[in-house]
Structure formats: structure tokens, C-alpha cells
Amino acid sequence: MPLRLYRGDLLLIAVLLLPLAIAAPRLGGPPGEAAALLGWVGRVGGILGLAMLLVTAALSIRLPGFDRWFGGLDRLWWLHRLLGFGAFILIMLHVLALGLARVPAGLEVAVLTLFPPLSQLALWSGWLAWLAMVIFLAPTFQFFGRLDYQRWKRLHLLSAAALLLALGHALPLAGETWPWWLLGALGMAAMVWRKLLSPSLARHPYRVESVAPLARGVVEIALRPEGRGLRYRPGQFVYLTPLDESLTAGRGEEHPYTIASAPDDPLLRLGIKDLGDASHALQTVSVGSRAMLEGPYGDFFAVDYAQRDALWLGGGIGITPFVSAARGMAAEDEGRHAQLFYLANGPDRAYYLDELTRCAEDVERLTVTAHFYREQGPLSEAFLRHHCPDYVDREIYLCGPPGMISHLRDLLAAQGVPALRIHCEVFDFL
């Protein structure tokens, strides 16, 4: 992921460093003696680790619009994961450094520092918090096979226990408690919203209006709002929770799907490819059944990007954000030119190509070029340059399978395209 600072990043850094800044006068600078230095490193690591853990919880709030402060929900989830693993590492450093700092006084003293009598509830609360972290982080290493999405979400409830236990460890031992109360309140508020309140307050009721087959294993589902519909921009996505009782899988489960409709469309349309149990079941979802939508999320076609002409490279079901943008261009009087390269295995898998070609005929600012892997192999720089000579000067958007994204990133980087002008939409954050 390109290194780009967003306005939310500065706030995040300030919040992370707040407890350490408050504790700095009491901690002092790093001492010169080895044992004292280890003790200092242990305390600093513990403060930063706990701050990262609490901020990780706060970032899970998933409020529409909040994600744009951090470059979209995919990047926010990346930060969430990064801080979570960072917190675990720093907490391990905290334990190890404090134990080693006591070794010069004797091994028994070091062991007693880490494993005191059970009456020392604050210290044992810290160990229980660490154990809860191990249990809910272990599946991400896939020690037990492929990660199951819904089971992983339920297991995340342990993170709430880890937070409470970690606060039970820090509050009795901290010299200044108000930063921990503040961060703890933010983290717990995010979890209460995410797990208890958002299912009823943040979701919008819709009805399935139609299910149109596009190709084998691909459908476009049109949904009509029961009340006021969601307002969205091209390139955004929603979490869909189908309630159709006839579904063989996925009923009541939320999964992210990119919006394929234009913002002025009275129906909200989702292109859904059969990629798992839930998306397979949605291929035959009942017309008239109810569904809940949450969002919109995402920052793919961000409004603050430089107003250069755009190059769109889409493949597989990753074509949907470009379909939304192309459909929306017909209602716009002006805007930048966009050239879309539709990358598909063959004409039979370019399920939106005919419509996109018609859009390009009606909209002067849109050009569509098809590229078929089975006939032409991977997209080459020569093909790209032939059909879009100024591609290196454009703002570039990629969406599609991981292998396609990796190939395109390498191709563009080899031509000197700055990483900050390459924007990707990914769904590996869930």
C-alpha cells in the first residue's frame, strides 16, 4: 500500500502518543545502565502497546464517511490490522523487557516479577488480556486452516474481553489514568456501536427488485429502498445482509459488495460473482425478499485526487465500480476524460462490455477498450500505450483479482508511474 498521509493519520498519531506524552515526565529519558534501560523499554513498550490496542478497537467503529478520513475502509482496516499486530508485539516486548530487567537481581526475582502471587490482580489481569489476544489473533496466522469469516467475526468478541482486562491491568499501575479512561471509552464505544447498535440503527431496509444473470456465476441484483435510499458516489460499496429465508447460506450475514448503479438510479444495483457460499446463494435470491444495507463506504474515486484524465483498469467482478462511474457519466455535464480497459478472460466473461460500449458511444468523455487474456495474454505495456498513449500521465484506478492487480502494479511501476497515482479497490479486509 502506497505511503500517503491522510488527515485521519495525524489524529491517529496524536492519540497514540498521548499516553506516552503524559507519562514522559515520570518515565524520564532512557537510562545508561542495562537493567534500568530494559525496565524503561518495558514500560514504554507497555504504554504504546496498550494505546495501540485501544486505538485498534476504536478504529473498528465503521461509520460511513469516517473511513474517508483514512483513505477508505480498505485502508482503515489495514491500519486496524497493523495496529493490532503492533500492539501484540509491543505487549510481548513489555513483558520480556520487564522480566529481563530483574534478572541481575536473581532468576527467582525475575520469575516473581512476571508471575506474582494471585493476590496481585492487576498483573494477572494483564496475563489474561494477553491470553485473550492470543486466542483471537491465532486464526489470522491460519495455524488451524483457512480462516472462516463469520467464525472470525464471532471470535473477535474476545477482543472486548482483552480490552477490559488490559485496562484492569493498566489503571491500578498507571501514574496518570485519564488517558486510559479516554482511550478505553473510545474503544468500548466503538465495539458497542459495531456489535450492538449498528445492526438496528445503521442498516437500511431494501427489497430485491430483480436478479439479472450476466454470465455463468454472475448476477446483478437490483434493490429498491423501502424508505429513503442510500446516497452514494461511484466507486463506493455497501455491506449487504440478505434476509431471504430460502437462502442456503449467508442469510443474516453481512458481506461487502461494490455498487454498480449510477447515483441517480432509483434502484441500487450490485454485481455479485459466485466466490463463496454466501455469494453462491445470492445467485438465486428471491425477488421481493428483504435485505439490509449498510454504508456507503470507500474512497476509490476520491474527490481530492488531482483532476487528471483517468485510466481505469478493471477485470472480473472488479469491473463494478467502473460500471457505476460509466453509468453516472451520462448524467454529468462535464468532467475529466476516462479510458476504461476491460480485462477479461474472453468475450463470454466480459459481462458488462456491451453496456459499457453503449455508454462510450453516448458519452464523449468515455473510451472503452477490451482486452481478452485467452487471445492476447496478459496486458502488455505496448497494448496499453497503443490504445492510451498518455497513460503514464493519468490518474490510474485498478480493481480486479489479486493476480491482475499485482501484474498491473508491476507494469506501471516499471514505466515510472508514481505509486501515489495508482489507486486500488480491494476486499481482503472484510
In terms of topology, how is this protein built?
Layout: H1 7-27, H2 34-58, H3 73-101, H4 107-114, H5 121-137, H6 149-155, H7 157-170, H8 178-201, E1 204-215, E2 218-225, E3 237-242, E4 255-258, E5 268-273, H9 277-281, E6 290-297, E7 310-315, H10 320-329, E8 338-344, H11 353-362, E9 366-372, H12 373-376, H13 381-387, E10 395-399, H14 402-414, E11 422-425
Parallel strand pairs: 7-8, 7-10, 8-9, 10-11
Antiparallel strand pairs: 1-2, 1-6, 2-5, 3-4, 3-6
Helix pairs in contact: 1-2, 2-3, 2-7, 2-8, 3-4, 5-7, 7-8
* CATH C-level label of the largest domain: Mainly Alpha
Helical content (DSSP H or I, runs of 4+): 40-55%
**pLDDT under 50 segments (min length 5)?**
none
Work out the helix count: 14
For this structure, the CATH topology of the largest domain is Four Helix Bundle (Hemerythrin (Met), subunit A)
Secondary structure: number of strands: 11
| Average pLDDT for all residues | 90
What's the story with the biggest beta sheet?
A: 6 strands, antiparallel
Task: Tell me which oligomeric state these chains represent.
Answer: single chain
Q: Architecture of the largest domain, according to CATH?
A: Up-down Bundle
Structural class: alpha/beta
Radius of gyration: 25 Å
Compressed to H and E, one letter per element, the order equals HHHHHHHHEEEEEHEEHEHEHHEHE
What is the count of distinct domains?
Answer: 3
Shape: elongated
Lateral arrangement of strands in the main beta sheet: 4-3-6-1-2-5
Query: Span between N and C termini?
Result: 17 Å
- Strand fraction equals 15-25%
Cofactor: FAD
GO molecular function: 2 iron, 2 sulfur cluster binding; flavin adenine dinucleotide binding; metal ion binding; oxidoreductase activity
InterPro entries: FAD-bd_8, FAD-bd_FR_type, Fe3_Rdtase_TM_dom, FNR_nucleotide-bd, MRET, OxRdtase_FAD/NAD-bd, Riboflavin_synthase-like_b-brl
Subcellular location: Membrane
